[in-house]
Amino acid sequence: MGGRIMASTINSSTSNGIVITSDTSGEIELQANGVTKAKVTANGLQDANGNSLRGGSYRNLIINGDMQIAQRGTSFANANGYTLDRWRYAKNNSGVVTVTQDTDAPSGQGFSKSLKIAVTTADTSIGTSEYGLLTYFMEGQNLQHLKYGTSNAEKITVSFWVKSNKTGTYCVAAQKLDTTRYDYVTEYTINSANTWEKKTITIAPDSNIQASSGVIDNDNGIGLALVFALADGADRQGTNETWNTSLPSTSTSNQVNFLDSTSNYINITGAQLEVGEGASNFEFLPYDVQWLRCQRYYEKSWNDGTAVGSTGDTGSYMFLTNRNPGNGHTILPFKVKKRANATVALYATNSGNVGYGSNLDAGGVDTGLLPSRIGESGATVYTTSSIALGNFIQFHYVADAEL
Fold it and tell me: How many domains does the chain have?
């Protein structure tokens, strides 16, 4: 057969038929004409490259891990809040970053976008309680199969692609926020500058996670947060590869200060969190499926990539006043049922001013609008003053139900 035997091998040879070669590694390789197609290992069934061959749809607990959806826009200067869909940059320091949707992605892996963070104002001295974090929040009711709070609690694996000019030690933290809070911190290393690298981290439950205090509530609140630390003060540092009880713990003392130079950037894509030990190949979902899943948390009437508050009527809503005198009103149905009762903001199409619509029969002037009776599926919109019968009111909206 040739080559180095790494495991007991079952090979289907075109010349000799089934050939079985045994060793004591405890692994089995399945081959076709001498080429390994799959392996059976202590971590389960894997492909020839060691990726877990884990079946099932929606195994990735991260929505928009390939950074394709960007409803709010594609560039966020002085970022401090949600950026690309489901991804939130949080800061408490004097450094400033710009977050963008970037076309740089690892070659040959199926990705076309990444989330890029570039430092525009440096902070060379991070205070003890200061931080710069990229965070992803997950609903508790989507995490029940982790079995946290029981002796059967599962291992979970985080995998992602990363690229940066600043090498060194970085940290990822899993924060279990329900019941008793525990923060698991683990280090990874960016080895080569300006090079895409794939990182895989398995997080095992401990006695705290297996106890009743480890339970994740079965509700629509935050069950887990996944945190990529970029800069972290001493008061926020915990023990590596441990579920820490001293909180918050989103990094270790080895975490680099990514914010120390305006030349620094970092790109991340292919973020996946799944049950089991070892990473499977990234689960690519159709664009429309990802878009709808993102809209459970946030939607707007503007086209994707068009900033909130932009003028123009593309995608806007319009209604005809139906009382004279009186206040006009209409029903605003959401495109997707929200995680919880949404927060709604209304914008005039002509001016972009919040809290208004454009009265097209009065020269497009701003007319006060108020959302009311807001739920998970829609809202009622009223004019705040009496307007003439037959006037058309045009507006854009945002419905936000983020975690």
Answer: 3
